[in-house]
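Contributing new complexes? Match this layout with pyridoxal-5'-phosphate.
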Amino acid sequence: MRQVIFTGFSPNLTWRDVKTAGVFLLHPLRWKNLNRGVAVEAAENKLSAYFGFPVVTFDSGRSALYFALRALGVGDGDEVLVQAYTCVVVINAIRFAGARPVYVDIKDDFTMDPDDARRKLTGRARALIIQHTFGQGADLTALLALARAQGLGVVEDAAHSFGARYQGKLAGTWGDIGMLSFGSDKVLSSVRGGALVVVNAKLLDRVRGWQEKLPAMPIAVVLQHLLHLPFFWWGKRWYGYGIGKWFLYAAKKLNLTNKIIYPAEKRGEAVSFFPSRLPNALACLLLPQINDAAAVNEHRRGIAAIYRRQITNPLAIHPPEDESSVYLRYTIRLPAGADPLVRFAKERGILLGDWYTAVIAPADSDQAAAGYAEGSCPAAERLAPQSVNLPTDRLITESAASFISAIVNSYGA
Ligand SMILES: Cc1ncc(COP(=O)(O)O)c(C=O)c1O
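Output block (do not edit by hand):
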């Protein structure tokens, strides 16, 4: 059998998660606790202690973002500045709040370009979303100065940067409110989940009030999220035999597992069963992971350092060196286009995936429904197809990172 290395595919998944899911899945008498239990409050308390501000959980980062914008007073006719090279669900959150996304171009490090933000400002702008793409810190000093000067509310999108400290201060605590994601590709993962770090105390009652009124996640949907764990655990193990791929495909087709982004969301439409509260069962997955965050991020930095040292292919451009980045992915660029390298690596057992290959990811999202006007962010349009995500998660050993580096080096040689 050939060993397969993945960038995506639930990269943080551990046996502990599979066991936690099993405790619920194998005991239908415990299904009454899928939504009800003490884990959500325990996770919120632990996260609040971690950040030093109240933390309120939701079913996902996208739902959390929607409530963050509403808490800042964003509504009909308002504009929200957001970087191009983001996820379609970020745009949906803005649109569902009644506002119009205004796309700001990016710098070579995939974060927002403050000069373009200044150019794109109009009198209708109400809020700014600052995203730390792949864990790389955005230019907080310039962007916050701009927001303060214009009286904009600031949401910090820390979906990719749990535990990162920029200039010594935790990601998620710089703006009025910080958004966290616990989706399956993130630093911490409960398959699905999200939260708000409420820095501006004036927003807390509203955010908490909305959370309390939310419905529970439908039980069938919670079960799908839990089933994700055993399916991916064994699907990844059997992938090299060929059957793992079909196993995961069948699970998806039979609706046994969740979707990270639902087809309706890619068309810019809402999904009926969200927003909802974070289920107890998913909080049980999250809770022990909070203790692991520092070690997980240290590991990611170590793997990133190996890529930086060992990848010497002149066709590849490294991300800027940034000590504060948590390198959710180590994203290199191939100015001639990334697809051939992705295919080359796949033939050698490395699935680098296609996360963030378009201005609005995933690439099959309806870019027009998202209100993106082609040509409005030329750097994002140029950089997106050049980017390749190398994995840094806890399953990537030093020798796997060296193997990946060698494959990248042999490309085009
Ligand atoms: C930058 C960014 N923000 C927000 C989100 C949404 O997070 P969630 O999947 O928890 O809704 C994502 C999802 O990948 C993302 O990439």
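Reviewers usually confirm one structural detail per submission. For this one: The two ends are 27 Å apart (CA to CA).
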